[in-house]
């Protein structure tokens, strides 16, 4: 597989990745770090799904559990109560729908509804206890669903207390290769797999930007890459804002560095960008595409 010439196979759609795709974030949570529970109600989340599509979102990513640093796990029943009505509505809107969850049971229910993609911060490793089902088995048991495997150091409650050490790019690359290989060993076609370096998940500011600067190294295994920089605290750090102020920044203050990071990620080879500010990201990528269309062909 060659980056830029790939498709992403999902339950209902084959997503053409010859152009970058925008995944719009729908947090059905009261405690998200980035949008303060603005879409916690089912009605608000459903309306937000519709608006993101109007704004140009290619994919909707729906989650019911906050994974911000220090977040506590959410009981499965509560997660399902939050997301199932929203997933059901999103599935009628004509775009691929992703469920943002690490719980195998939630994955199973969502896929049974027809959801297209499993987006898992644990890269299909999480289980209630040793010996119970893994997301790996759920995804492998589905004939066509897409999956995004993310790198996370430690787990949400402790990941920023003890960030990674050493060469972050090499470690992230090895981990993602191993998780993709584990799926391949279960018979999952490579065309179903996308990788995410996990910006902000157990990494320092410097490590996050090292992943961006050297992002093309993460393309070596041949899988498409998803970049999730939107409203991350590392952006606040380099724009000289205190991390405590991130949640109180207005939409413009949060949007500009997020869109800049999304554009750079695409320039560095990302096939999908996961964002809150869909309209602005789509517009910036259209400008980038117009420039590319007029670029002189390579000699």
Structural class: alpha/beta
- Alpha-carbon distance between the termini? 23 Å
- Which stretches of 5+ consecutive residues score pLDDT under 50? none
Mean pLDDT over the full residue set: 90
What fraction of the residues are assigned to beta strands by DSSP?
A: 5-15%
Q: What's the level 1 CATH class?
A: Alpha Beta
**How many strands, which pairing sense, and closed or not: the largest β-sheet?**
8 strands, parallel
Q: Evaluate the radius of gyration.
A: 18 Å
Strand order of the largest sheet: 8-7-6-5-4-3-10-9
Q: Helices, strands, pairings?
A:
Layout: E1 7-9, E2 14-16, E3 21-27, H1 42-54, E4 59-63, H2 76-90, E5 97-100, H3 104-113, E6 117-120, H4 135-140, E7 146-150, H5 168-185, E8 193-196, H6 205-213, E9 226-227, H7 233-238, H8 251-267, E10 272-275, H9 278-294
Parallel strand pairs: 3-4, 3-10, 4-5, 5-6, 6-7, 7-8, 9-10
Antiparallel strand pairs: 1-2
Helix pairs in contact: 1-2, 2-3, 8-9
Q: What's this, in brief?
A:
The protein is an alpha/beta fold and 299 residues long. The protein is 37% helix and 14% strand. Helix 2 (76-90) packs parallel to helix 3 (104-113) and helix 8 runs parallel beside helix 9.
């Amino acid at each position: 597989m060659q980056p830029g010439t790939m498709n992403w196979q999902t339950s209902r759609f084959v997503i053409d990745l010859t152009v970058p795709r925008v995944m719009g974030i729908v947090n059905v949570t009261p405690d998200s770090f980035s949008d303060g529970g603005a879409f916690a109600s089912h009605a608000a989340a459903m309306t937000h799904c519709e608006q993101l599509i109007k704004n140009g979102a290619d994919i909707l990513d729906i989650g019911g559990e906050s994974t911000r640093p220090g977040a506590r796990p959410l009981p499965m029943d509560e997660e399902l109560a939050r997301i199932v009505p929203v997933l059901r509505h999103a599935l009628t809107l004509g775009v691929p729908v992703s469920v943002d969850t690490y719980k195998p049971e939630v994955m199973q229910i969502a896929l049974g509804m027809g959801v297209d993609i499993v987006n898992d911060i644990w890269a299909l490793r999480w289980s209630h206890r040793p010996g119970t089902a893994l997301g790996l088995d759920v995804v492998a048991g589905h004939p066509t669903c897409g999956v995004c495997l993310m790198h996370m150091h430690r787990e949400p409650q402790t990941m920023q207390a003890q960030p990674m050490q050493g060469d972050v790019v090499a470690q992230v690359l090895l981990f993602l290769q191993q998780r993709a290989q584990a799926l391949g060993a279960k018979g999952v076609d490579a065309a179903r797999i996308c990788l995410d370096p996990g910006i902000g998940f157990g990494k320092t500011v410097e490590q996050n930007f090292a992943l961006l600067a050297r992002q093309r190294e993460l393309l070596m295994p041949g899988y498409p890459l998803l970049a999730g920089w939107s409203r991350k605290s590392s952006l606040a750090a380099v724009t000289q804002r205190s991390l405590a102020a991130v949640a109180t920044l207005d939409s413009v203050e949060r949007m500009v560095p997020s869109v800049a990071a999304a554009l750079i990620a695409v320039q560095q080879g990302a096939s999908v960008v996961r964002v809150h500010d869909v309209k602005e990201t789509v517009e910036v990528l259209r400008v980038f595409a117009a420039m590319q269309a007029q670029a002189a062909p390579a000699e």
